[in-house]
Amino acid sequence: MEISLLVCVTDVTYYCCQNFSTPNLVYRSRRAPGKIPAISALQSTSYSSLWKDYLPAFPSENIILFMQDALSIEDLTSFPHENAELKNLVSESHSVYLPSVGETSSLLRDFKNEGYNITEVSKLQSGINLKSDKNVVLVNLPDTLTIPQRKLAMQKSNEVIESVLSKIGGLRKFTCIYTARKSSKETSEVGSNSKRRVTRSLQQAVDRPAGFHNHSCALIWLRNDVTVNVLGPSGVIDSTFTIPNNKSVASADTGHCEDGVSSSVQITYRNVENIPGATGPYEVRLEFKFIFVRSKWTLSYVEGNLDASMSRDLVFQMHKRKNELVPNKMSYSCSVKRILTSSNKTSSGGTMQMVLNGFQYEAFPSQLSKGKFDGSWDCVGFFTIPVWMSLITIFIFLIILFWGLWMLSDVKTMDRFDDPKGKTINVPNTE
Amino acid sequence: MGYSNSSYTQSYLYYGFYIYSLVLIAIAIGYTITGQGERIDIGWFLENVSPYYWAALGIGLVVSLSVVGAAMGIHTTGVSIIGGGVRAPRIKTKNLISVIFCEAVAIYGLIIAIILAGILEEYGDIQPGDEKYEQNLMSGYFLFGAGITVGFTNLFCGLAVGIVGHIRAASQITDHLLILKIFFGSSANFFLFFIMVVQVSKADFVSAS
What we know:
The complex is a heterodimer of chains A (431) and B (209). Chain A is α+β, with helices and mostly antiparallel strands and 431 residues long. In chain A, 21% of the residues lie in helices and 31% in strands. Chain A contains 9 helices and 20 strands. In chain A, strands 10, 11, 12, 13, 14, 15, 16, 17, 18 and 19 form a 10-stranded antiparallel sheet that branches. In chain A, strands 1, 2, 3, 4, 5, 6 and 7 form a 7-stranded mixed sheet that branches. The radius of gyration of chain A is 33 Å and the shape is elongated. Chain B has 209 residues and is mainly α. Chain B is 76% helix and 0% strand. Chain B has 7 helices and no strands. Chain A binds chain B through residues 295, 327-329, 381-382, 385, 388-389, 393, 395-396, 398, 400, 402, 405-406, 409-410, 427, 429, 431, and chain B through 5-6, 9-10, 13, 16-17, 20, 27, 35-36, 38-39, 45, 48-50, 53, 57, 64, 86-90.
């Protein structure tokens, strides 16, 4: 049985705001398949670096993904006896151990986007064969957070891994990935915060409204439901449907975050009705993409699979009419309604329009951990351009006025001969 | 004797300027210390101010600064000619030429302003970010630069001709036969035409259509 194992332990990402640390172990069997890049001395490996550098080094046709709910470096190193099985596997194969990778919860989504066929392991064991070329076998390991002792939790996970590999490891050449959705250890930031005394109002659980999404360095709040108008080829609205906020599943929010470059948030809505082309309840996924431009950020586009009659998954890219740049550390809530128009066409030849009615969004807020928006951008500076122009012109006029007044006040008259009672002067006109 | 009225006026003017600049500096410091320093965005200002503004400012400054230079020159030389002419009337006619040279400075400025105004034309509805807008913005900057250059040069040239004329008049009072050629004082003006032509050679306002 040739198995590849890559174990990467994902840790909290460098902004230290979310508990998204998942160990990630990828291991491979005896022959090192390709050049495995050196793991940098830094504690954290970025998610994009995992995708670009490490995963392609292993043959990636068939992957077993062991997904735990929470894992950290201490779990793997503190319990040598319980992790013995894992150690055996690692020692008899080629592996890469990344102690800190961010955002591994979006691994599954990205595998799906890359064209992998995802199968649950229980279906495999009951006899369904792996058909296609690119397969990911998902093994959801039992919950570890509900077990108070990490020791027992790790032991259970190891037993499950061993049993899965013994049963289906012989089917193909697998590359195994052992990772988790978040870290089992709290970050240092959270630890220091817990020592602070907080007032009672902060201790009360904050109830987030349904349209609020806090994920991957961006905050989005959609106050009302999103409406989508389907336009015919002539531009007239053919039909319209809504994507209600209460159908969004907050736990299914995923996204990427590249600090200082871009951020994308994907919101999933389940059981949405009345989608054109869909016969039954449909799952809508909207991806909001924010980019950074010269120390200001903006919403670049919104992508969504809004037409079920099209076979591809992510169909429409909605663009705004013009890109409004918002300064750093400020949120945008200037428009009540924002209409985004799709650049590509529906199956009937028209376009789609997405209307956001009442919203506020922000990329890279300063209080991401609390999920709090920064101050809202006024969408107009302190002085507008015409105000500056007139200020400068008035300044020039004032200079002229002051200079003239100065010169006037500087004129020295001959007071010596202004005495009315004195004798008049007589200037002889001699030559 | 006490303080004269003029010194009061001068101090008011001083303090007026100080307060104006203090308010501007206070606003700038306020932005910087609240962490919004990058909102003082000179680039945003320069890109978005209309090219019409720069061009019109340049044209206005040409003629006004030239006239200021000429006026100050005539002020200097006229005072000395008239003052000297009280006791020595023979210098009056000979020194008129200084005044004429000062006036010529103002005429140069006026001609150049007319030429620049001929280059400026309406370009329709072009927004910042458009390619044509950049061409128009560049033309606006050219006109502004030409206006500033010619205007200030004429200002100092007028001052220079005025001072030379004053000295000529004053020395002719004492020395009857002194003939001074002051024409060199306004030689700076001759070069201005060429400089202006070089500066605005690429200025061209493209219209939207």
